[in-house]
Design a protein that fits this description.
The chain contains eleven helices and 13 strands. The protein is an alpha+beta fold. β4 (63-68) and β5 form a beta hairpin. It binds adenosine-5'-diphosphate (ADP) and magnesium ion (MG).
Length: 381
């Protein structure tokens, strides 16, 4: 972090001179609560100790000048809709400016240099970190922080929708903006209410194992999952499966397809698992947290059917080694597992899981240790 900061400051000084302000925002994990957002349920994310950091200074011009250290590219653009830059990384920043303006906020020209250590495309939401960093910064620099934090998250989400072609939910930006060291956040995707829960495991680490596979699937599996959920909700006479119980589902079991039944079963059980994990965290009971993570994996694999061979393999290896909790993180069909690992098992787990996976699939998974940390912020000198 210190070396990232020093490098940003050095390059900012060379390109734009002295006196910018430093901001950062974080990537995120989701401990539990998968495929629940579009069913009006709960998600349970937290910000991590991997960030995008930017030094920014108003330049008195009508344009933005920005340099990406990691991509080693410079972009320059105006602040009107027709000024959209071509580089995809710059479109995130342009989108943030535009979405603030569309909401009546102020954005003036500025210079910026930024870098990060959130792995790209690994499921840790580097894009939300980038959006939140600039949204937070421009709120501070040009709007006296009067745009509320939830709106900052929505500005990031709208940026993905309108400028980056990604039709995402609100969780990633929410987590990046609201993240707080030592806390996870339960976000109610129906009411948008949220609550912080302590996550400070002294005896455990969170480890992500990135399979580096992404199965391309035909016939839109995600849409089909959604349709199943909507069909069952309709049959039960509720808005979303948030309002359904297993008793209600079992009562219509003979009227719906087996596939729809198991999809809905997963969603209903997953809602309860998030609540159970919250209780467990309040009691400092990380063994129960881990147990719930395995149950989620099982449900995602067998009932919701969004796992794949590689992810089930990673889960099996974790279980065999006695890892406390392990599950798919994210939509499925590839990407990461998130693992809750006892400190004294940590090094062995990494060694064994890397070796075994490599032996079986011919490439090593990537390992990321993560610590639950602060989200969007100004970095005081
Ligand atoms: P993720 O799952 O990590 O959010 P995305 O594809 O949504 O993956 O976002 C990745 C994109 O965000 C990159 O292609 C790039 O445009 C931008 N980005 C993320 N991190 C950086 C960075 N450190 N420097 C420049 N651009 C970045
Ligand atoms: Mg993203």
């Amino acid at each position: 972090m210190e070396s990232m900061k020093a490098e940003i400051q050095k390059i900012f000084k060379e390109r734009f001179g002295e006196g910018g302000t430093l901001y950062a925002s974080a990537g995120r994990i989701n401990l539990i609560g998968e495929h629940t957002d579009y069913n009006g349920g709960f998600v349970f994310p937290g910000a991590i100790d991997k960030v995008i950091m930017a030094e920014i200074k108003p330049n008195g011009m009508e344009k933005v000048r920005v340099f990406s250290i990691d991509i080693d590219e410079y972009a320059e653009f105006g602040l009107k809709e027709e000024d959209a830059p071509k580089q995809s990384w710059a479109r995130y920043i342009f989108g943030i400016c535009r979405e603030i303006q569309k909401r009546g906020g102020e954005v003036k020209g500025f210079d910026a240099v930024f870098a990060g250590n959130v792995p790209l495309g690994a499921g840790l939401s580097s894009s939300a970190a980038l959006e939140s960093c600039f949204a937070f910064a421009l709120n501070d620099l040009f709007n006296s922080n009067k745009i509320d934090k939830f709106e900052l998250a929505k500005i990031g989400q709208s940026t993905e929708h309108n400028y980056c072609g990604v039709n995402c939910g609100i969780m990633d930006q929410f987590a990046s903006v609201f993240g707080r060291k030592g806390n996870l956040m339960r976000l109610d995707c129906r009411s948008m209410e949220y609550e912080y829960f302590p996550f400070n495991p002294q005896d455990y680490k969170l480890v992500l194992v990135d399979s580096r596979v992404k199965h391309e699937l035909k016939d839109s599996p995600y849409n089909r999952r959604r349709e199943s959920c909507e069909r069952v909700a309709k049959r039960l006479g509720v808005d979303t499966l948030r309002d359904a119980t297993m008793e209600m589902l079992d009562a219509v079991k003979s009227d719906i397809t087996a596939e729809d039944y198991f999809r809905a079963k997963f969603v209903i059980e997953e809602k309860q698992r998030v609540l159970d994990v919250c209780d467990a965290l309040n009691a400092g009971d990380y063994e129960t947290v881990g147990k719930k993570m395995y149950e989620t994996h099982h449900g995602l694999s067998k009932d919701y059917e969004v796992s794949c061979e590689e992810l089930d393999f990673l889960n099996d290896v974790a279980k065999t080694l006695g890892v406390t909790g392990s599950r798919i993180m994210g939509g499925g069909f590839g990407g990461c597992t998130i693992n809750l690992v006892k400190n004294d098992l940590h090094d062995d787990f990494i060694k064994v899981v890397v070796d075994k996976f490599n032996e079986k699939y011919g490439h090593e998974p990537k390992i990321y240790d993560v610590v639950i940390s602060d989200g969007a912020r100004k970095i005081e000198e």
